[in-house]
Design brief:
This is TBC1 domain family member 2A. With about 230 residues, this protein is mostly helical. Helices cover about 70% and strands about 5% of the residues.
Length: about 230
């Protein structure tokens, strides 16, 4: 189960990294776009009389339209950044952190298993040694003393084996519960991605709706004698 989670963790980490880049880029675009939209349209001038040019259209309205304000234009930036951070980046980061925690615990489980296997081999080896000694009892009276010592050693090894089995069983059970919970909660990444798409779409739509759809500026009569700066 952890191997399957590892595949998801790898691609989710890449997505999280890219999403942070998009977060920075989009908030920057929304801010700079708002600054542009808040900038006044340039004036329109008539110089056909061959005299000092006079402004025939005075356009004080901003690029974004007469009702556009910088404050309103930049509000979407804060909303987007906050929603991406809380509704997408944090849930994904939390799940990835849980995966790495499970990965660290898996190393402990693997170590416990290696210790268990080593303990089993020692017990098996000691049993073989005892059987060999048992075969020498008839021909070697001293073998009985050696066998008693070997049986005592076997008892100690058997105790260590039981301890290793219990340790591995407990660690494995806890890890199974940990990984099961991790994999079950992986579905939440789907919601996080939907939240990112919805937040991005909402922010861009809100920013778009603030910009006027008029294709011509609202003209207003210029004061008489108004000239072009620098003329």
């Amino acid at each position: 189960m952890l191997k399957e989670a590892a595949t998801l963790a790898r691609v989710a980490t890449a997505y999280e990294r890219d999403l942070k880049k998009v977060q920075d880029a989009l908030t920057s675009v929304l801010e700079s776009g708002a600054v542009v939209c808040a900038t006044p349209l340039p004036g329109l001038y008539n110089d056909t009389a061959g005299v000092a040019a006079s402004a025939v259209v005075a356009t004080a309205e901003p690029i974004g339209g007469p009702n556009f304000t910088l404050q309103a234009g930049t509000s979407a930036k804060g909303d987007l950044s906050g929603k991406l951070a809380s509704d997408t980046i944090k849930p994904i980061s939390d799940w990835i952190a849980r995966f790495h925690d499970a990965l660290a615990h898996q190393k402990a489980v693997d170590k416990a298993y290696d210790e268990l296997e080593a303990a089993r081999k020692k017990v098996t080896s000691q049993k073989d040694r005892i059987e060999k000694t048992r075969g020498q009892l008839a021909s070697n009276p001293k073998a009985s003393d050696r066998m008693a010592a070997e049986e005592s050693t076997l008892q100690g090894l058997a105790t260590k084996l039981s301890s290793a089995e219990l340790n591995h069983t407990n660690l494995e059970a806890a890890q199974h519960a940990r990984v099961t919970s991790l994999n079950k909660d992986a579905i939440k990444i789907r919601d996080a991605i939907r939240s990112a798409l919805e937040a991005t779409s909402s922010a861009l739509t809100s920013a778009k709706d603030l910009v006027s759809t008029d294709t011509e500026p609202q003209a207003s009569a210029a004061p008489a004698g108004t000239g072009v700066a620098g003329r």
